[in-house]
Amino acid sequence: MGSHPPIPTRVVLLCGPSGSGKSLLAADSGLPVLRLDDFYKEGTDPTLPQVEGSSDIDWDHPQSWDADIAVAAIEELCRTGRTTIPVYDISLSARTGAEALHIERTPLFIAEGIFAAEIVERCRELGILADALCLSRGPLTTFRRRFLRDLREGRKSVPFLLRRGWRLMRSERSIVARQSALGAHPCDKAEALGRLAAAAAGRCTAPA
User: Fold this and answer.
1) N or C: at which end does the chain have fewer Cβ atoms within 10 angstroms?
2) pTM, to two decimals
């Protein structure tokens, strides 16, 4: 029996404000998922940015995240169907290990996280971008979802979560605008699922 050529694999980058429902949407899609939050820098990294006028680390700033390692993992998944990714504990602000991710011969997978828009252009240049989506639900809804999730998961202290939540709620519209300017299409859950289905069927082209 002859061997079949490898199935070309592409990625849908899914971004949006923290708490907008990216992880749930990715799970509902039925596609393999790469969690981009696992590529955060460790809390001891001297390059971590701080919130202006505060001693808090700004975990919502792109410089708190390692884009180079994330892009390398995405490219390897598209090329080979497998890669090794860090395991990151947000409550500890540290990488606690590594694990293998296998997506095998699937033609499409999702890479989701608040910084996904930062790598839209790089993935487009590599020829591996199927689509880029920015999920938005509105500042109040996102604030409530984010706070309850972070509290339930014990991600950070309550005072930190409240300070961060208030700051992000006030800046949510500018966050969505920036991610859109970087090439991610702003949409709600229903439209996002429709575009994912189109990408899986090969009917959707990456945004220009």
Assistant:
1) N
2) 0.84
